[in-house]
Each structure stands twice: as C-alpha cells, then as structure tokens.
Fold this sequence. Notes:
Two copies of one chain form a homodimer. By secondary structure, chain A is an all-alpha fold. Chain A has two domains: 44 residues, Arc Repressor Mutant, subunit A; 164 residues, Tetracycline Repressor, domain 2 (Orthogonal Bundle), CATH 1.10.357. Chain A has ten helices and no strands. In chain A, helix 3 packs across helix 5. Chain A starts with 13 loop residues before the first helix and ends in a 10-residue tail after the last helix. At the A-B interface, helix 8, helix 9 and helix 10 of A face helix 8, helix 9 and helix 10 of B.
Amino acid sequence: MWHPVVMADDAAPPMLTAVLEVARRQLGEVGPTALSLRSIAREIGVVPSALYRYLPGREAILTQLIQTGYERLAAAVREAEEAVPRQDHLGRWLTIWRATRDWALAHPHEYALLYGTPVVGYAAPSSTIEPATAVVLMLARVAIEAHAAGARPAAETQPELAQELRDDARTIQDALPRLGVEAAMPSDPQLVLLVVDAWTTLFGAISFELFGHYERSITARGAHLEALAQRRAAELGIVAAAPSTG
Amino acid sequence: MWHPVVMADDAAPPMLTAVLEVARRQLGEVGPTALSLRSIAREIGVVPSALYRYLPGREAILTQLIQTGYERLAAAVREAEEAVPRQDHLGRWLTIWRATRDWALAHPHEYALLYGTPVVGYAAPSSTIEPATAVVLMLARVAIEAHAAGARPAAETQPELAQELRDDARTIQDALPRLGVEAAMPSDPQLVLLVVDAWTTLFGAISFELFGHYERSITARGAHLEALAQRRAAELGIVAAAPSTG
DNA sequence: GGCCAACGTGAACACTGTTCTCACCCCAGA
DNA sequence: TCTGGGGTGAGAACAGTGTTCACGTTGGCC
C-alpha cells in the first residue's frame, strides 16, 4: 500500500514535476523500456531512493507519462484541426491524420509508449484510457458533422453486421454526448464503426511506419497515409467542400 | 567482433536449440522485455556465461525469436488458408484475417515481439524483414487471383495518387515474382496499395485489441475484425463466390 | 526554544547483461 | 600409451538496474 501525494493537481510537489519533466526529456532519447529511475534521479541531482517519497515506483512514472502523453498528442492534433474552416470536413479530416503522424514522427519514443507494447502491465489503469480517446473523438466529430451536412457512407461497403457489433456501436453512440460530442446521430451503426475503422487504420499505419514494417515497401509514407485518409473519408462520404468540378 | 557458430542450419549445436526452445517457452509467459538470459540459463541448468559460447548476447536470442516467430505465424496462417477452396477468394481472404488474429491471441507475447515496439534496436536486421512479408504476400496473392478472375476494385475509392506513391506501388509489383507471387498484374497501382491498406488494417486492429485500445469500446472483437476484412475485400472487389441470393 | 514531521542520504539486497580467467575432459597425433 | 590442444562450462567479478530501510538533517509550527 502506498498513500503519500494523491497526485492532486493543486500544489504538486516541485520534485514531482521535476521528475516528470526530466523523465519526458529522457524519454525523447532512450525509449520506454530503457527509461531508468536512477538516471532520472541522477539528472535531478538526487539519490534514487528520494523519489520514492513522491512515487510508488518506476511504473508510476511511466503511467504519468502515458497520461500526459495522450494529452500532449491531443493538444497538438486539436490545434492543427482548429485552424481549418469548420465546414471543410475533408480538410479537417486530413489534418487530423497528418497532425497525428507529425506528432508521432517528432516524438517516436513517446508514441511508442502510448501505442507500442504496453510496459506497465497488461491492463492499462483506467486513468489512462479516458484521455486516450481524444483523437478518435475528433474523427467522430468530423464524421458526424459531415453527416449532418449531408454526407452519406458509401452504400456498397455494408456487410451484414453481427448483432453484438451493432450493440457495441450503439453503446459507443450513447456514450458520445458524455464525452463532449453533441451527437444527433442517425440510428445507423455503420457510421461509428467506420470511424473506428479509420481510427484503427490511422494508428496502424503510423505504427507500421515507426516500427519498421514499411521498411522496404512503402517509402512515400506521407503520401501513403494521405491515400489511406482519403479512402476512409470516401467510405464515410466525406468529400471536398470547395467548388470542385467533379 | 564475434565469430563462433555462424548459425548455419546444418548441425546446430544442441545447446543453441535448447536456448531457443526455452526462450520461446518463457516468452509465452513474461513478454519480450522481461525475457531474461539468466533465467533461460537457469532453466537449462547452466551458468549464464556459458550461453556466450553460442550467442553474442541477449539481443541475438530476441532476433532469432523474431525470425522464427514470423515463420511460425506464417505457417499457421498458411495452413488455415490452404484448407479453403482456391476459387473461393473471399473465403481465403477472411481465413487469413481470422487465422492471423487467432495466432496473435494464442501467442500474445510473441505477437508483441513481432509487431509491438521494437526491442532489438531501431533498425531491424535484414534477416528478419524477409520472413515478415509472408502474410501480406498471402493477401496479395488472393487479391491478384481474384483480380484475374474478374474482380475489380471499387471505382469511387480512387483519389489522385502522388507520383512517388505510384512508384512505390510499381517497385512492389516488380518485386512480387521474386517473392513467389506469380503476378501477371495490371499496371494499375491501385491494387497493391489496397493490399497494403488491408495489411495495415489487419495488424492495426489486432494490435489495438491486444494492446488495450479497444478496451471500453469494441467488445465484439472477432465480429469487428470480420467487418474490417469484409470492407477491405469489398474495396478490392473480392466478393463471395458461392451462389448467393444478393 | 524545543519538537515533530517532512525530506533526502547512504547502505544494502536481489536482480540483470556481460567479460574474463580457469579447470576440465575428450579426442587426435606421435 | 602418453601428450597436447581445443572446445566446454564454471565461477568470480563488474557495472548497471529497481526497491527497501534505517539514519541524520533541516525547517516550520506551537
């Protein structure tokens, strides 16, 4: 059992913030598994055991980094997306994809901590799964607003869906308002599932790129992600807004 | 520098095979980063330094496990796929997806070693990237055979492709015969790129499932992967072969 | 002024990967 | 039959890790 410092946001001990600062800096250089508590203490100029006054152990540092990592990723993507005109749904959609990839390339080890092999144990603490939903929620918001503006999913990509999957879709749909997505959504479960599809593709592609699986096949990584984003947008019926002679 | 035992397939030292056997067994329990050379030596009943007669270090064990891991995955998927009638392209396609997921669920740590955060260093040795292509090659073969049988990609999912991406597609296409895929393929780059898309989706979804990102959203994981496979098949024009009253 | 709690130190333990020296043992050649 | 010699594994050692615990010091409050 461990009780000190309930990690309340108000008045965080300066040492704690120093630990997380140094930890994130070192994470930019060495990767999650190589991140060393002793090395962090060394850089702060303190003996390793001193950190145990503020943290229950090494895993807690990683958990904190995961949580703020999701928030930093979300902030970067949100900032990029908000610069695009609201009615340009395709532009917003593509921007989310690009900004996510840009952030991942700029912070590969931090990305690996979030989306690579879990290192804290195989069940993520619930405190880390809520901020993790930010990017998919942004995708969902764009898809919903595009739908409200008349976009319709391509009809031919509609296999018969298993009932349990329809139930998942409905549960997700019902949870959206609570997560800040004002969803006056059609009862069609296809929309949510297509968003989950796109979300999976986005991070699947970035992970493949960063983890070396495109090594001798796809070299035009940016263009490749762009094509994926376009295809997923097309499935959702999200098309270019500007005057296009199509 | 390190020279003994060039890892030739003929007459591998029994200790070496024992190491890899025990290593894979332990990998089934603890995960790649926790895999310990000392623990392996302990189980064999030998002192740690003894292993250095046969291996240059811990990373070499992981590299070996990666290589044979890809081969084991490929074997499992191939066995399942070969049980499906050749002309049932959709059935073969879906079987590849299911078999890959089944193997991943049965060997989560081994899957994490292959498709999670790289642990051997950020450039995979070239000996490990060739067997890694087996699954995507199987997807490609089915897509090509379906195409030869008349399947055509959906026309509307065709954004203008960047030239560099078309070049990648051509390079891949040219490499296929050398990799055992007898490809009398159309010059359309779309087909290869759609296969890469599907490949990315497949492992993206499995990684999301295993690494906990579907934790409170998608619970019907099997049905979900099935839907993804169906959608990717539809984009490639792979449809059910049997008499179906559409 | 004295007390108490928070703080950081230092030593220690149990691990890890890796290197090096040393003894053994078996087999080839004289 | 004796004698090397080479491959083999043991053992100790080094540097590093996460974690625990007992010990001083120090600063603020009564």
